[in-house]
Amino acid sequence: xxxxxxxxxxxxxxxxxxxxxxxxxxxxxxxxxxxxxxxxxxxxxxxxxxxxxxxxxxxxxxxxxxxxxxxxxxxxxxxxxxxxxxxxxxxxxxxxxxxxxxxxxxxxxxxxxxxxxxxxxxxxxxxxxxxxxxxxxxxxxxxxxxxxxxxxxxxxxxxxxxxxxxxxxxxxxxxxxxxxxxxxxxxxxxxxxxxxxxxxxxxxxxxxxxxxxxxxxxxxxxxxxxxxxxxxxxxxxxxxxxxxxxxxxxxxxxxxxxxxxxxxxxxxxxxxxxxxxxxxxxxxxxxxxxxxxxxxxxxxxxxxxxxxxxxxxxxxxxxxxxxxxxxxxxxxxxxxxxxxxxxxxxxxx
Length: 349
What we know:
By secondary structure, the protein is mainly alpha-helical.
């Protein structure tokens, strides 16, 4: 599971190692149980091949444990080593991630390790992997969102000036938007639960960047579609000879709805938006609910309308803005559905 292979390296006898492996459901592997005596006769090339096919290594001394860790690393594996004794210290130090037992582990093992397992429970490593993958995914989602949402903001700041249209933004509008963007990135996305398949996919390549080309392209497309929707609304308002305040109100409302739409569709890159509405994430509802409530106040209260240089708009005009904002992000739902179908087809094959 999770693309992680478990290997047992022990000083116990082969029969003891086999019994423990049977209890925990660890397959021996096509290479059988390898003993320390057998390993000592292997050259490096033979050992590199053996560690690919054997999951149990018995009667190992500290030097051989270290050699096994180095062989796994030489095969391109990312190695996490667990241990509790002085004899495990060299291998713990050599592994990419050394994990020492906090309860029964020796001081030497804890000093050599990168992490200390406080409860001495192997299952805690599984929980840590799940948590780490979830955090990594959420960081990516937050970065994708923050990149996408700033494209329409920059576009609406520059394009009207280049076309001779009235400006859309004043500082107060930027403050409003940042009051949505910052909590969404730092609170709402970080509190999202892990994706359903987080422990069924292989580990990412160690050198894979946090924000790769594919995510950059998707974020760019998301931002461009929201920008196009807001420009269409602005152009429509000016074509209808609406006042500057009315055009600004319609455009800004579309942008806020599109902004919230970006938050919605980026909550999960595998499930559709309707499914994510059942996720337990109160901070998401505080951010989106607060944004909608404040937008409603700015559109209805005369004092706030004056501060934001807004005009009164009808329910039909608000519905038009909401429709344009939501349509601008709807394509990403089809992209997710297509990706899910491809993954389902791959599993069936």
